[in-house]
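FORM 12-B: Structure-to-Sequence Request
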């Protein structure tokens, strides 16, 4: 069975580059998103067997050795559906073989991704699984229940193909074990994912031509219409130090640091100081209908990496949700939490950590 899985992995890995070429690279730039897409994945790596379970298998004569190897070459395949930019569901199976013992593990999982449309996207996964273990003499054993948790990253190689690194650890109940009945097996795989076409972003409304704005003729003199009014930004407060144009709108070129958008310690709720600044930001974004935006959240290095990553993601999402409430189209913005990974300022100084703690950046993404 493991040989068949490995053969399937090699076949799918050979086909994925060809499938990527069959899709136009410009699909993402034309508004194609990965929400609503199917994700086909295959990978290979290592399986690690729990010590108590490994001793039981060796003493019971499952393998070719009384002390089987705890490390085994492994392979995995899965298919998943991405319901939204963050959530998806998948089913699949993994297999491994060491010292004559075969492991076959079908599983089902839910996945939370920081930003599925980003080039580099960390994710968390969790679900249920059941491992069937087959020995050299065809004897079999399996757990009565099992669950797993995992973490991984995707790195997009093209609009449709990603490099996928994933590690999972499972807790499974084996009634045959002489001592503790729970075994903790783990697997690490590296492979490729192929995304089918997802939902398209909403098309911008087409404004019909104005019949009264055509040039008029009086005798032999052509009268040009006055220039169309430019949207003015009159509400809220501009961030300190941010450049504004003659109409009061923020000059949005590349990256704008919103220093005045503060959060309380260990919180993701917007403060009363932040809301007026975001009101002016929302008006300025509406004055640039041709642009797309990324809202990037940051934290300092105090605390664990995983906690800081989730806190920065919640803060970026809170800013995005507020801007949506001010009329900015949701499909124009993505919220990304970077945690302590890409600091705005050095964390070695008190001032730098203070800036990173409340760091929210608005990044302009031209189509």
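FORM 12-B RESPONSE
SEQUENCE OUT:
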């Amino acid at each position: 069975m493991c040989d068949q899985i490995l053969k399937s992995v090699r076949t799918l890995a050979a086909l994925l580059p060809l499938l990527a070429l069959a899709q136009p690279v410009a699909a993402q730039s034309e508004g194609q998103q990965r929400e609503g897409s199917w994700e086909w994945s295959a990978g290979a790596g290592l399986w690690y067997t729990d010590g108590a379970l490994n001793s039981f298998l060796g003493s019971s004569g499952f393998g070719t050795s009384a002390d089987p190897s705890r490390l085994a070459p492994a392979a995995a395949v899965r298919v998943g559906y991405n319901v939204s930019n963050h959530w998806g569901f998948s089913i699949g199976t993994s297999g491994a073989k060491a010292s004559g013992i075969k492991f076959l593990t079908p599983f089902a999982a839910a996945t939370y991704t920081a930003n599925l449309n980003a080039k580099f996207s960390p994710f968390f996964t969790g679900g249920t699984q059941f491992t069937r273990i087959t020995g050299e003499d065809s004897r079999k054993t399996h757990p009565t229940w099992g669950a797993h948790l995992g973490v991984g990253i995707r790195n997009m190689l093209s609009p449709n193909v990603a490099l996928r690194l994933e590690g999972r650890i499972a807790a499974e109940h084996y009634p045959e074990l002489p001592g503790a009945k729970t075994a903790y097996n783990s697997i690490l795989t590296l492979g490729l994912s192929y995304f089918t076409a997802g939902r398209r972003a909403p098309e911008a409304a087409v404004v019909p031509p104005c019949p009264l704005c055509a040039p008029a003729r009086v005798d032999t003199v052509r009268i040009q219409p006055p220039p169309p009014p430019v949207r003015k930004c009159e509400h809220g407060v501009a961030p300190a130090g941010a450049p504004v144009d003659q109409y009061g709108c923020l000059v949005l070129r590349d990256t704008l640091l919103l220093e005045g958008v503060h959060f309380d310690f260990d919180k993701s709720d917007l403060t009363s100081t932040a809301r007026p600044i975001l009101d002016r930001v929302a008006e300025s974004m509406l004055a640039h209908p041709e642009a797309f935006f990324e809202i990037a959240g940051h934290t300092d290095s105090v605390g664990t990496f995983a906690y800081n990553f989730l806190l920065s993601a919640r803060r970026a999402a809170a800013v995005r949700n507020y801007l949506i409430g001010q009329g900015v189209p949701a499909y124009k913005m993505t919220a990304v939490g970077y945690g302590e990974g890409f600091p705005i300022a050095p964390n070695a100084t008190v001032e730098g950590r203070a800036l990173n703690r409340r760091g929210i950046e608005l990044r302009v993404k031209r189509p």
